[in-house]
Amino acid sequence: MNNVVTTNGLTKHYGRIRAVNDLTFGIPEKSVFGILGPNGSGKTTTLGMLLDVVNPTSGTYSWFSNLSRKENRQKIGSILETPSFYPYLSAIDNLRIIAEIKAIGYENIGEVLKLTGLYERRLSAYRTYSLGMKQRLALASALLCDPLVMILDEPTNGLDPRGIAEIRELIRTIARQGKTIILASHLLDEVQKVCSHFAVLDKGRLMYSGLVNEVSHEELRLEISADDPAELFALLKTFPGQRKVEFSGETIIITLPGHVAIGDLSRFVFEHGIVITHLLALRKSLESQFLEILNEKA
Questions:
Q1: What CATH code is carried by the domain that includes residue 270?
Q2: Are residues 140 and 152 in the same domain?
Q3: Within 13 Å of residue 282, how many CA atoms lie on the same side as its CB?
Q4: pLDDT per residue as tens digits for the range 3-27
Q5: How many domains does the chain have?
Q6: Are the C-beta atoms of 143 and 150 separated by less than 8 Å?
Q7: In whole angstroms, what is the distance from residue 11 CA to residue 59 CA?
Q8: What is the pLDDT of residue 297?
């Protein structure tokens, strides 16, 4: 798979502060790529450099096939900060102004309003919109030029659970059109639900980059119980390849390599004369992986 953007040693210093430090990674085309990190980790600065609004101190990055900056910008839609709209103008009129600024036609306005679920309110003043609707209008404005890549900085920031769910589903809809989406977020659960790839930044450094679905495949955690917990605990300690066996209340948690089949464990227990009364696979969360990465490399 080709990369839409590749960075090589990308660095940004603000005096003695290293906001981004020697960042090297690639973002595959048609992926939904989440950039994670605590506050001050360099997420927004990284996106700013990729959008040519922040000048790197050193290092390079390249979009597509090293096209000119103007050609690159025509292929990218972005929401880096909260967009400004005229409060007394309708969605259509606001988008017409943005189309004029971007020197593009009006033909996509109706389509992006339908895509973002705002078509029925297209004539309503922006000031009457909920926070979630305002964020969807921001996405509509970024989609006006039918970009190949969308860059979103904290797209669900400040939204209530319903608004978060709406933006999450909209991101999925946009991704199904074959667009690459790059988003920075601190909402780890949301990234796990919408992203195919993710990277972790901390203090401007790249700590990890990989596939989201590999998070739950690296290890298998099972919650298991039987009539005699002590006997089961002792037996599980002898299971080949087990990484950890521990009590959690009245149940036992066993951690296994991701390649181990649950059936292998249940067969092992049955062959030793113990009947399992409870067995539940526990999915490893992106949050636990994120914390592990930061702790391991602190």
A1: 3.30.70.980
A2: no
A3: 16
A4: 999 999 999 999 989 999 999 999 9
A5: 3
A6: yes
A7: 6
A8: 57
Q: Cα-atom radius of gyration of the chain, to the nearest Å? A: 24
- Predicted structure pTM score: 0.76
Which pLDDT value is given to residue 216? 54
- Decide if 23 is inside a domain: yes
What does each C-alpha distance from 145 to 76, 281, 289 come to in angstroms? 8, 45, 37
The verdict on residue 298 lying in a domain is: no
Q: What percent of the chain has a predicted confidence (pLDDT) above 90? A: 59
Contacts of 194 (CB under 8 A, 6+ apart): 32, 34, 168, 171, 172, 175, 183
Residue 9's domain comprises 1-75+148-213
From residue 2, give the alpha-carbon distance in Å to each of 29, 71, 93, 147, 213: 6, 18, 38, 17, 20
Residues 128, 260 within the same domain? no
Encode pLDDT of 165-187 as tens digits: 889 999 999 999 999 999 998 77
Please check the confidence at residue 287 and state whether its pLDDT lies above 80.
Answer: no
Output the pLDDT for position 196: 92
